[in-house]
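Standup, Tuesday
Yesterday: got the pipeline producing structure tokens again.
Today: sanity-check two examples.
Blockers: none.

Example 1:
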Amino acid sequence: MFCKKVFIGFLSIWLVTACSQKNKTTSSNQLSDHQLLDTVQHQTFQYFWDGSEKNSGAARERINLDQPFYETDIVATGATGFGLMGIVVGIEKKFVAKEDGVDRLLKILNFLKTAERFHGAWPHWIYGETGKVKPFSKLDDGGDLVETAFVAQGLVCIKQYFKNGNLKEKRLANLADELWKGIDFKWYTKNENVLYWHWSPKNEWKMNLPVHGFNECLIMYVMAAASPNYGINKAVYDEGWAMRGKIKSPRNYNNIPLQFFHQGNAPHGGPLFWSHYSFLGLNPNGLKDEYGDYGLETKNMVLINYQWCVDNPLKYKGYGKNSWGLTSSYSVKGYAGHAPEITKDLGVIAPTAAISSIAYTPIESLSAIRYWYTQKKDKIWGKYGFYDAFSDQAEWYKPRYLGIDQGPELVMIENYRTGLLWKLFMSDEDVQKGLKKLNFTSPNLK
């Protein structure tokens, strides 16, 4: 009798647990696309709100929930730029009250105003408590013009969003405008027709990284051309970014074409963040110059990345139509630039790759988002949304986040839904002048 009672007791517990789990799954599956995207945006927004560095209000480089005291005071400049745009999204979607959002943005911008700058450029990392540079590497202890350009992109969006608001909002808009216009892009040419990534007072130009060819850096050239105080001429773009025309380098994967030489001569396009970071504000759709069509390139980069994961040439567990996306992210062993190449595909999927591509591939991206949320939520979903990366192949699921990957998810979902950040950035008068200076055409140019 005792055994029977115990059995019945266990059976009852199992039935309750099973029914509860079924209801959770059913509830998740019943979310509309609208509700699902709201959920992802709201949760991801918290990285830049609740998870921000406390003194500055800016975006932390990383948040590792399994290492709660690891690098909590390090601000990432690029992630902060994306976070500025993300807070605008949060205000627009009423995740926070507008006044609270304005106060937070003023806090961040005042921190950026007093933080160390190097001919107007911020460093890659900043100590949030002091505003002093934290060296990214031995030689990289000064200005990082690429990360700075990501901040400039966000500052333009803030200016446009608040410029017609109340007195405090106008003050915020004016401060944003002042900060980005203080970046000395000309200095970073070293009097050559190319933009250099780094400079520091101690090591000067020893990093020696002129920026050539397609990667995440187009926005740097656009902002440099747009700058009314320190603007570059078109020759810097033509000889630098476009490599005197050599950027035109057609290639394809499974009949999906690419037009451009990608940094490192990546045969199938580099890590997928190259199609995101520059295009959070800069709308690639219909954006063309004499070298190619940027809307086509960004979309085809994603289609190739997706198809590679579907083809799965290395036969990794978990790859497929509902789980895809290779980009630079956390990896099983540290950090890696995952990409659709045999030597760079390590069996690690980064949700940001597919999620941030939703504006280019809504069907494929939504399929992945829904699958991960309904079928893998217990393994890869946490306090700030989807984890940075995971591997079914290695059974590796770490609750870790990188700010520079969380930001594009929040922003690009909004661009897919409303075009908000694209509209703000592309409507700016200086941006319009800069794009025209570089001979771009776009349906968004007046």
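Example 2:
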Amino acid sequence: MVSFPAPPTAVGSSALRVQLTYWWRHRRLARLSAPRLFTEWVQHRKLNDRDPRLPILADKVLVKDWVAERLGPEWITPTLWAGKVMPTRPDWPLPVIVKSRHGCNQNMVVRSLADHREAVRRARRWAGRPYGAWLDEWLYGEITRGVIVEPFIGTGEALPIDYKIFVFAGVARFVQVHLGRGEQHRWIVFDRAWKRVSLPTDDPDPVMPESLERMLAAAEELGREFPFVRVDFYEIDGAPRFGELTFYPGSGLEPIQPMRLDLLMGLLWTAAAADWLERGMLVHA
């Protein structure tokens, strides 16, 4: 059973720093007190939402128990090892993927002993540094710093396609499909009926995953206690596999195009937050 600590004190957040980073990426100021766009809501959450569950559920080690309780253990990729200092030689079959447990975009596929030596060096660097402070992503500072090793679940050399489901007030609304991970990373957004809602690109629309309905239902189960969360999945041999929970997608700094999609997502978050407040479920609006 996963237990949650008392809320941490809201320290270290800076509205000025949030505005500067938002301006840097979007060339406009964010409406922090009355957000309308999705990217503005992410900034609002950084500054105001101190839900004590968030660090637990963003921890790549601890979240697995919480998800297994709700969906079942078959949704979880097993942990081969977790700690702060990786062994100098692998005690597990290769290939594997090595990730920091407390940060984002800190991962490496290990296919050989030479890769493992490089992963040991990177893991030491990841575990030795806090994550998220300069972007005011407070929850990452509450997670125990360390590294997790999992079996590689891709096919051949390719990383699996990432299906990131945007859940507002327990309803799955959009699926962001990430292609070319580790190479030419790019993404496309679909609605739940698999109609593209992001801008046209040179990529043909990927085939709808066989397990999409199961992913959507699972995302709604995991997201029903929050006004917004992104729930990530993979599909392995036709079966869905949980990836992680994300509360600050792209730190709210990655442009969402077209702008009307940023606005539509923002309006869904606005409605969810208003509903949470009305029902007394949201302490930090």
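Quick observation on example 2: Residues 1-11 have pLDDT under 50 and may be disordered. The chain has seven helices and nine strands.
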